Amino acid sequence: MSKTITIDCDPKEMRIAVGTSGLTGVSVEQVLSAPLDLGPNEDFLESPKTLAALQLLLKKGNIRAGNAIVCVARSNVELRAVHVPTVDKNEMPDMVRFAAQRQFASVGDNWPIDFVTLGLTPDGMTEVLAASVNPARIERLEKILEDNGLKFSQLVLRPMVASTVALLKRPELANQVTLFVDLLQQEADMAIVDGKNVVFMRTIRFDADQDEGSRNKTISSEIKRTLLSAASQFSNLSVTQVIVWGSLSAREALCRILTDSLSLPVSSLDPFELADVSAKAKGESGHESGKYAAAIGALFAPSYHEHLIDFRHPRKRIEKKVPVLTYSLAGAAAALVVGLGLYSYFASHADLDQQIIALNDSIKQNEGAVKLATQKENEWRKIEAFLAGNYSWLEELEYLSKKSLPADQAMFGSATFSLDAKGTNAAVSSKFIFQESEDAPEMQAALRDPDHEINATGIAKNPDRTSKYPWSSDLTIRLAGRKVEDPRKWKSVPIPETRTAPTSESNTKSDPTPTGALSPNPSPTPVATESTTPANNASDASPVTPSPTPNVTVGAPSTTTSPPNVGEGQSAPNTNPNPNPAPNEGSAAPTPPPSAGEKSPTSEEGN
Question: In the CATH scheme, what is the code of domain 393-479?
């Protein structure tokens, strides 16, 4: 995480603050100061004392790299309120530059001009606070910082950033018109804030050798002059409070004097109370925390850039480049798509007409089915809604009884079982009392599961002081919505093919094997066979009538039928090549062939 170093100086002293920005905000790690003691007409950018003081502070803080934000005093820039026509936000930078070149005393074409918008005037013009600085000073400052390993990131106005931290951490200050006073050793910055914008700024100088009483009187007089000057420029501006940067112990006497002389509420504000300042930084500041208000406020400048003037990144017109190639490719693609679409339309127009006719006919044919399906669907929705809201409250009582703590630890009061009008949200509300305050989270954890959402209020004393349960809490158990599955399980079933029974003549012609013979290679799969009784005359070709009950032989796939030439009283010859076949498991033992003079059982049955 890169460090941010803010630099602020006046003719007598240079101050820096070191901080880091993260998800939790800005943290101030160090605040350091070093004497500067510049002469009355000595420029701090050209003086070797400035470079020496900066190097001393960087060495003292062990700072070798980081992003630098420099605060510049009001006296080092040209600042003026400018009225411009109300135009688009992107056009405003050019409009402000055009007006500033006419109203500012010395502004070149390459001078950076930044501004903040204050609002609309009664005549519909836009009022902005514009400022400019010599670009040569920016280049000189950038070189000094780069020579010491710092990256020049922002150049902001000191009176503005001093109030940044207050507006970020105390949003209620934006509801009043506040005058912020930042006292330094030889200077004092005064900034009037209306809402979230600084509308008026003024920097005064006083003798650093004055005693405290004389300096306080001087500051009081300059504050009155500032209020009069602001009222002359803004007729509707009325300051309602004054805030002096610094700790209460250091500014108590000044606040008391200003309250008596200004007839306004005056208070002090310690910048260390508005930021996450380390103990090391507090120890380095001593009791002079107020002088670091601008340095600490500058740490918040990246997140408050909209309401600050930044000469490093002034507002500029955003040039909108016309993507000619993109537009050309998009036009060609659109023309190609339109051409293909027209071709496809005219090519398939006839087919589409036929499809429309067929679809219209299909719609007419299915109107009755669709109407019936819609009716059934609506009926199911009603049943589904009923089933979804059909909660079993007895089961919920059982759930409460089994899941809750033992009776010697907790006890439920009266319970309310509720269900909304739609039948989708069910809840059980009850007050339970318990022995120890630690029993409340234990009870909630015991009752909580995927089907029950537990919401409980805070723990309170039981109003019934005679009860052995001194604690109570309200508990609401929300039941998970019930899912109802559609019992209608529709699936497609293929239609079986219909087969006609073959005639006896076709069976005889297609199979040359005698009907009473066994297959030489019987299939191991059991086969269900039909017994048929042919006519006595083999020449009859009457259709075969299947018997109502087929004879099923397990383990013997062959089929035995009476040959056509066997008449009544005759037995069928044994055509099995094996006279004593091994009996199959699950089938009857084979019957030996009858001896001479004996009748076959088959012929007996036939007789």
Answer: 3.30.1360
Residue 546 tokens, joined: 């299947």
Strand 266-269 relative to strand 13-22, pairing = unpaired
Query: Exposed, middle or buried, 245 (CB in 10 Å: 0-12/13-18/19+)?
Result: buried
Task: Convert 513-574 into a string of H (helix), E (strand) and C (coil).
Answer: CCCCCCCCCCCCCCEEECCCCCCCCCCCCCCCCCCCCCEEECCCCCCCCCCCCCCCCCCCCC
The neighbour count for residue 52, using CB atoms within 10 Å, is: 13
Task: Find which of 134-138, 247-251, 523-527 is predicted with most confidence, using mean pLDDT.
Answer: 134-138
Q: What is the mean pLDDT of residues 519-544?
A: 39
Q: Supply 135's token pair.
A: 């670009």
Handedness of CA 217, 218, 219, 220 (dihedral sign): positive
Instruction: Name the pLDDT band for 408 (thresholds 50, 70, 90).
Output: confident
Whether 4-77+133-307 and 393-479 share one fold: the answer is: no
Q: In sequence order, what are the residues at sequence separation of 6 or more whose Cβ sits closer than 8 angstroms to the Cβ of residue 255?
A: 244, 266, 267, 268
Between β-strands 4-10 and 66-72, what pairing exists: parallel, antiparallel or unpaired? parallel
- Was domain 4-77+133-307 assigned CATH 2.60.120.580? no
CA separation for the pair 44, 23 (Å, rounded):
36
| Residue 298 or 605, more confident | 298
Could you tell me the residue ranges of all domains in the chain?
4-77+133-307, 329-384, 393-479
